[in-house]
Each structure stands twice: as C-alpha cells, then as structure tokens.
Amino acid sequence: MTTIDQKCRIDLNYNLTDAERQPPPTPLTATNMPTDNDSGSLHPSVISLMECIELSVQSLLKSNFVSSEDKQGAKQNQTKGLVNGLGSVNIDALKSDLEPVLQSLRKVDAEGMLQLQRQASGSGREEDCFVGIGNRIQVAPIHKKIIPPPPACWIEGDSHRCVRYLHVTENPGRYSVGIFVFPPGASIPLHDHPEMCVLSRILYGELSVKSYDILAEKERKQEYSSPGHNSAQSHSKTVEKSYSDNKTWFSTITSTLRRQLSNNTRLSSDEISEATAPEGAKHVINKTTKIIRAPDVTSLFPLQGNLHEFTAGKNGAAVLDVLLPPYDFDHDRDCTFYQEASLCRSGNSDVYLLVPIPQPGEFHCISGKYLDFGEE
C-alpha cells in the first residue's frame, strides 16, 4: 500500500538533514487508491473526495488552460496549468469548476474517517471537553492522540497550543490535501495563499476566522495609489524566501528554520506607512471576522478571502483543507505571514495595509500520525 505521508515528518524546530528527508508521496489516483479491504485504507468518503478533486482539476484545466485554437500541445498546457497558479482564471469559472469539490467536502463523514468517540449519554463532565460535529452530536477531540506528542517545552500545564498537521495526499503542482488539528485556543496566524484556491471542511469544533480580500493591482493604482508610494530600501528584505532542497508547501508554512531572518521582531504599526512599506506588502479590503463551526464548508480564491487567520474555540477544532495548487517555492507560492499595519483609506470600502513579518514565535505546527493519516 502507498504510504500516505512520506515527506511531512516533524518540522518547524527540527532541522532535518538531506538524508533524513523522505521522497514526496505518490498521489492518489483512480489506479492506485487504497481499497476498503486494505489494512490501512482511507475512509470511503475521503476516497470519493480524492476522485472528485481529480475530476474537477481536469475540468478546470480543460476549460481554462487549453484554447480551442491550440489543440496541439494541449497535454503540456494542462500539465503546466495549475503550476503557475490560478490568478488568471475568472473567479466565476473557478467557483463553477470547484463546486463539486465543495459538495464532496459536505459529504465527508468526519466521525467515521477520524473514528471520533461520541459523548456518552448523560455525560456532561466539563473536563471531557467534547466538541460538536453537527446535528447536536458531541465527540472527543483528537489532538492528544496524535503521535509523537509535541516537545515538552511547548506544553503549558494540562494543555498546549501546538497545531498538528496530518498529511493525506498531494498531486504535485495540482493539489494537496491535509488535516489541521487545533488544540483548544490554538491559532494559525495571518497568512496568504498566492494565486491559490483553498476549500475547507470543518470536521469538528469551531474557529474564529479573520479574513481579507486582496485589492487587485489595477484597482489599487486607479483609486488608492499615492505618488509618493515607494518601497523603502531599508525594509526591502524584511521577509526572505525560504531556501532548502525540501521545498514543499508544508515545510514553507511551518518551518522557522527555513526562515532565518535577521530581524525576528514584528514591525511597529506606527513606523509603517505606504511610503515605507516593505517589499511584499499588500493592500486589502473587506476585512471580516466570523465564527465557523462543524460541518461548515468554506472557500477562498486568489483575491477573495485570500489572507486569513484562525483561532480555535475552547475545546479545539479540526479542518480538512484542499489546496489548489499547493504552496511551491519554485513558482513564487511561498507562504508568508502578515500583520495589519495601517488603515490606508476609510469609507464604504476600507483599505488596509498588511506587511510581511517573520513567522510569529508563538506559532508552532508539527506533522504527526493519527490512524492512517500522516506519518510518525
């Protein structure tokens, strides 16, 4: 049987050598998907999701990356299509092609795939910390069951806020699928998804989500640009690209060791204006904050909702993510963290300036194994 997670071992504060790094996982396809009889098989609803993603990606490539006049070389164009991101694709076309994936996410059996333990009838003990999965069903969270446990130095008292990642599959250059498991109160700081779409299903629990839309460059120049706006030279390298042989989307979102920056402190909002904004700063609009709960399904696109941050509720949460395409350093899709620096313009549509920052020191995320997901 194909190992589901062959590359995402413990990351972040663990500096793996080249010899320790594992080859990328074999993507699941109709020909190599595990069957129900395999001892390490995926849950049927997850396999259905994988099949749906493959079909939707094919539809997306065929309808948006191959012109009717150029049938010769169509296969090559389709292969390269998602590698270069989805920023050039009309958002209505994206929503139409990816709607089947959202429908499939809604059908995922969270209780079955994670073998969640329901709250016993009449059990109301507060220490049990049960979380909802929908339909008034309460289950026990799994963050303490993931192996290996987080380093002792990250654990405070009886709880910890280290986010765990369970890799499911990845088709390089097209999509990746994984599960983020949040202990109570854990957060993923504000970050972006360059030229990407992300479709998510809340498997259990609830999260507070703050998100922003990216202001299109054309709109920004027409309405909000300032003649004096120029990236200050002194800030031009505030955030450097991570560089390693292990350039996977997971390593870029979690590894501080790949981001050895000379300045590990956040910039003061009072010190930043449009004229002094560092390279990579973004103008954003439609700042929103909302609570999402299982079994909600959410989506973000190259501009719409593209930057967001999560904070789990008091009993934790788990989220199944589909990224199209995956993060990719070689194609300028590295994951970058941000902080809100200033309000550039107020009115009917407030415009905010977000500036890139080093990975926040309080954020920890390591991969692990639970059932057939991930790898120890």
Report the structural category.
Answer: alpha+beta
Number of helices: 6
Give the CA-CA distance, first to last residue: 17 Å
What's the total count of β strands? 16
Radius of gyration, in Å, reads 21 Å
Mean pLDDT: 76
Estimate what percentage of residues fall within beta strands: 25-35%
Largest β sheet strand count, sense and barrel closure: 10 strands, mixed
Poorly predicted ranges: 1-40, 71-76, 224-250, 252-265
Broad shape: globular
**SSE run:** HHHHEEEEEEEEHHEEEEEEEE
Helix content: 10-25%
Structure description:
- The chain is α+β, with helices and mostly antiparallel strands and 376 residues long.
- 16% of the residues lie in helices and 29% in strands.
- It is built from six helices and 16 strands.
- The protein has helices spanning 44-64, 74-81, 91-106, 110-113, 217-223, 249-254, and strands at 131-134, 137-139, 155-156, 159-160, 163-171, 175-182, 187-191, 197-214, 282-293, 297-300, 307-324, 337-345, 351-357, 365-367, 369-370, 373-374.
- The strands form four sheets. Strands 5, 6, 7, 8, 9, 10, 11, 12, 13 and 14 form a ten-stranded mixed sheet that branches.
- α1 crosses α2 and α1 runs antiparallel to α3.
- It is globular and about 55 Å long.
- It starts with 43 loop residues before the first helix and ends with a strand.
- Mean pLDDT is 76; it is low at 1-40, 71-76, 224-250 and 252-265.
